[in-house]
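Researcher: For the annotation table, I need structure tokens for KAT8 regulatory NSL complex subunit 2. Please keep the output clean. Sequence:
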Amino acid sequence: GSSLLTGPEGLMAKERDNLKRLKCLRRYRQRYGVEALLHRQLKERRMLASDGAAQQAHTTRSSQRCLAFVDDVRCSNQSLPMARHCLTHICQDANQTLFKPCRGSEEMSCAKPVPLSLAEEPCCPLHLRLPPQLYVPEQGPAVPQELEAAPTELYLSAAELQPSESLPLEFSD
């Protein structure tokens, strides 16, 4: 880009503007001075902190088998990503914080791993306690015995309910 400025023919005004824009785009979002120094230090800290995790992830992904033993036989299930155990044995890992064993019920204990959620005491679907039912359907209209034994003269027939003469309907404002 700088060789264009020194050429024998020179640059027109439009070409100079385009060159300025090109140089600005080349420096766009580049860090300079203190900001560049702090950014480099942050990157170095992240690299040092993630070296142990990256090395652990590399060994975990290279084996990809669960490290748990059941009756002196190693589990053959695939381990979870970034973990050393499978979903069944994940609670044996003391460093994990995403799963918790199910408490079960009073009659029977359950150790099935359950993902932590916003619930205070996470449970597996088998031991999940449902909230009380809000709607209770009515069994039927309860008719008091006094009304059942009432005389039938109190009730009007359909013919008696019809008006005897038609009255004009008037509507007011």
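Researcher: And a one-line annotation?
Model: The mean pLDDT is 76.
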